[in-house]
Design goal:
Helices cover about 50% and strands about 15% of the residues. It has about 750 residues and is α+β, with helices and mostly antiparallel strands. Strands 1, 2, 3, 4, 5, 6, 7, 8, 9, 10 and 11 form an eleven-stranded antiparallel beta sheet that branches. α10 runs antiparallel to α13, α15 packs across α19 and α15 runs antiparallel to α24. The structure holds arginine. Arginine binds next to α9 and α12.
Length: about 750
């Protein structure tokens, strides 16, 4: 019943105002919101073929990748492309897995990795792939029990038990993993029922000189020439159910897998993206945006920038360190450039002024009648004063956490391994013999468990690198963090070493029991209270945390108030524009975006074409710059024009652009044509529209996609892993004359 009434409402409102261009990360179960428009733009599938609860449909081929056994924290998206559970995603999404399997002798980051049989496919502990089984609007089970004016805490007290009950009722005795999340800042609640697969193996990855070609220089930029893909496979227990890794597991028999088109693309073609966008802030108010631009991002950029600098120095000097820190470096470098790009974009696109104008419009609307005033009158003033207050305290907190508590990895180790301290204390204080023996036994178990984890903890650790990080971060801490946030012990050390942070680092790393795996092992074999109580790394980690917890209490209380303000603001703006079809901000749930293949004008007199080619890779080649090295084999294939069925008119297409609306988490998402075929993998956004997570800019915002034909060319011609090609469902139709013409024009103008 409910579904139908919802549908009617939706049909009614979608006749009203439309969002500009192709903005929006839309909810799969509400496909009707955009279906007619998508059809007009070239979609040939039926709604049932895309999202169906009872039959297999396109959505069954989309999997969120996570390092959690629960369907949460999807860092990337992947898609099933064969009836044996083969998964495509981005190279930068598989990067951490590839890194973990790499050593100086077998450097899969540098050389690539290709399993030539299923036996050679490599398990990745902890990596999971979640597929959405169904979703439902559960707002009616939740919202009638709370009121708009309740505080977040009051609401949580009522909402949490209802959510727990709904989750239990829908998990089918643990077969499914159920998540219920607020959407539209808590003005709606949707339930997401997932199946989570826990045996996801690495199948193939190109060398970084293909998968990360252009490196951090080209990252977030167009024109791009990156083969940003990696291949995994989902395995299940022999009965098809999810299972932890076991040699007895078998490849997943999926409900659905995506066919692949070799027909290529042309400008204006319909394109649809499915995936798990992580977070956007499209309804952010001006005061929050100002807060971020002035007080939040700048300290992050500075602190991360310093850390990257130290890491890079060590990575460039030592191939072993280069592998060990590759994944963490890439992750932070990516965010770092994102923050910088976003600040730049917000300025260039005058986003603050636009937000201010919108906030004003809202205030006017609120002031128009007393009822609104009562409901929403305090919303913007509250948000404004909250951010004014936070802007006074946030910077020291960011510096304290990034350069202090999270500065050196050593402190994290000390924190974890020091967990035995509490127990050691209890043992010392316990007089009763029996009790004491019990606690001793518990201690044995605890240290045994920690010892078992040591190897993994220290596998990618390089002490000299971390020592330099400690020195640099501590120095910044002293420059940026006011004294009330200083751990007492840190000040003592600083005094002792007369603010010579290198000398201080030498002392801390020398003295600590946790700065090498061997030392940590020895400590756990014979754990002594005195040793840990005097361990400088342990002392620092404890005191940093205590100070931060103290100081952030206030901050957390304020953010509860803010959540309420944002919820009411969202409710208000939806009321203000009753004919507009809103989409909720991204929140790591499955969404679709629709648009088309299209280039753009980055600045006056400059037009970016929608597509790049392999000759562009050769043009960018620079053998003196590690980011722009071209593998020999790729050059040979290029010179022989040995592109197989993946090239067109003597050219190999590489990347292309669409107008789809995506964000972090969408990486690896399938880009799908009107016939439901895979035409590429989304992997990036563009520099000119880095403010996109806050404000979508139709003229500029593009999704950067690796052409699926480039992916197949690399698998087939470069790596020779033809067994994978044989698994795929490949569609190729007879070339149409108009496409050949269009391609000829492009090649003329580019060569
Ligand atoms: N900017 C991309 C994202 O956030 C990551 C691209 C990775 N490539 C690179 N060269 N770091 O998903």
């Amino acid at each position: 019943m409910k579904k139908i009434s919802y549908l009617l409402v939706v049909l009614f409102i979608s006749a009203g105002f439309r969002l500009q261009a192709h903005e929006g990360m839309w909810i799969p179960m509400l496909l009707q919101q955009n279906f007619a428009e998508m059809q007009r733009m070239g979609l040939k599938l039926t709604p049932e073929q895309i999202y169906s609860v009872n039959h297999s449909s396109l959505k069954d081929a989309i999997a969120g990748l996570s390092n959690s056994p629960h369907p949460q924290g999807f860092f990337c998206t992947s898609e099933i492309v064969s009836d044996q559970g083969l998964l495509f995603t981005n190279h930068h999404c598989g990067y951490e897995s590839v890194q973990k399997h790499s050593t100086v002798e077998h450097d899969y980051l540098k050389d690539g990795f290709w399993a030539m049989s299923k036996k050679e496919e490599l398990p990745n502990k902890g990596l999971t792939a979640s597929i959405l089984v169904r979703m439902a609007d559960v707002s009616d089970s939740i919202l009638p029990h709370v009121s708009d004016t309740m505080s977040q805490q009051e609401r949580a007290k009522i909402i949490n038990p209802i959510i727990a009950r709904l989750k239990k009722a829908n998990s089918e005795n643990g077969k499914y993993n159920v998540v219920i999340k607020p959407f539209f800042e808590g003005n709606k609640y949707y339930m997401l029922v997932y199946i989570v697969y826990r045996d996801v193996r690495l199948v193939g990855a190109p060398p970084s000189s293909i998968g990360k070609f252009g490196g951090d220089t080209d990252n977030w930029m167009w024109p791009r020439h990156t083969g940003d893909f990696t291949i995994f496979r989902i395995y299940t227990a022999p009965d098809g159910s999810p299972a932890d890794y076991s040699p007895k597991n078998v490849p997943l028999k999926p409900k659905y897998h995506l066919p692949i088109s070799l027909d290529g693309i042309k400008e204006g073609d319909f394109a649809m993206v499915w995936g798990f966008p992580g977070s956007t802030n499209r309804y952010m108010t001006a005061p929050e945006l100002e807060f971020r631009m002035e007080h939040y991002y700048p300290p992050l950029v500075e602190a991360f920038g310093k850390k990257l600098e130290v890491w890079k120095k060590h990575m460039d000097a030592n191939p072993d360190v280069k592998i060990k820190y590759a994944s963490n470096y890439a992750m932070i470098a990516n965010s770092w450039k994102y923050f910088i790009g976003q600040m730049r974009g917000v300025k260039k696109q005058h986003v603050i002024a636009k937000k201010k104008a919108f906030d004003e419009e809202f205030s006017k609307w609120v002031a128009e009648n007393p009822e609104r005033k009562a409901k929403y009158g305090e919303v913007l003033p509250d948000i404004t004063s909250a951010f004014q207050a936070e802007s006074k305290t946030i910077e020291p907190l960011i510096y304290a956490s990034i350069t202090g508590a999270q500065g050196a990895e050593l402190l994290g180790f000390a924190q974890k391994l020091g967990a035995v301290e509490g127990l050691l204390k209890q043992i010392k204080e316990t007089k009763d013999k029996e009790q004491k023996a019990k606690k001793m036994k518990r201690l044995k178990e605890m240290t045994a468990e920690l010892s078992g984890k040591l190897h993994k903890m220290y596998k990618d650790y390089d002490m000299p690198t971390d020592r330099d990080v400690f020195a640099a971060m501590t120095q910044m801490f002293f420059q940026k963090v006011p004294e009330n946030l200083h751990p007492e012990y840190l000040d003592k050390l600083a005094k002792k070493f007369k603010n010579n942070f290198n000398a201080m680092a030498d002392y801390v790393f020398e003295k600590s029991h946790f700065s090498t795996e061997a030392k940590a092992k020895a400590f756990l074999e014979n754990p002594e209270l005195k040793a840990i109580e005097k361990d400088p790394a342990y002392l620092l980690s404890q005191q940093y945390m205590a100070k931060l917890m103290d100081a952030s209490g206030q901050y957390r209380a304020a953010s509860g108030k803010l959540a309420k303000g944002k919820r009411l603001f969202m409710k208000g703006i939806m009321e203000m524009e009753p004919n507009k079809v809103f989409y909720p901000d991204a929140n790591s749930t499955l969404r679709y975006s629709y648009g088309k293949v299209e280039g753009y004008y980055p600045r006056d007199a400059v037009h970016y074409l929608f597509q790049t080619h392999l000759y562009g890779v050769m043009q960018k080649e620079d053998s003196t710059n590690p980011e722009f090295i071209v593998p020999k084999k790729l050059k040979e294939l290029y010179e022989k024009k040995d592109f197989g069925p993946y090239g067109q008119d003597g050219k190999q297409d590489v990347d292309f652009l669409t107008t789809n609306d995506i964000t972090g988490g969408n990486s690896g998402s399938p880009v799908i044509n009107g016939k439901g075929e895979l035409i590429g993998l989304a992997f990036d956004g563009n520099w000119e529209a880095m403010s996109g997570d806050i404000a979508y800019i139709p003229k500029l915002q593009r999704t950067i996609v690796v052409d699926i034909r480039y992916v197949l060319f690399i698998i087939d011609k470069y790596a020779g892993d033809t067994r994978l090609i044989d698994e795929l469902t490949i569609h190729k139709s007879v070339p149409q004359p108009n496409r050949v013409e269009a391609a000829a024009v492009t090649s003329e103008s580019q060569k």
